Amino acid sequence: MQKKRTVSLKKADIFVYMAVIFLAIGIAAFCLGTKKQGLGKSALIITVSGQQETIYLTDQVQTRILSGAGYTMQIEFSSKQVRVICCDCPDQICVHTAPITENGEWIACVPAKILLWLQFSGESYDGIAG
Question: Which among 89, 91, 64 has a CA at the least distance from the CA of 75?
Answer without folding.
Answer: 64
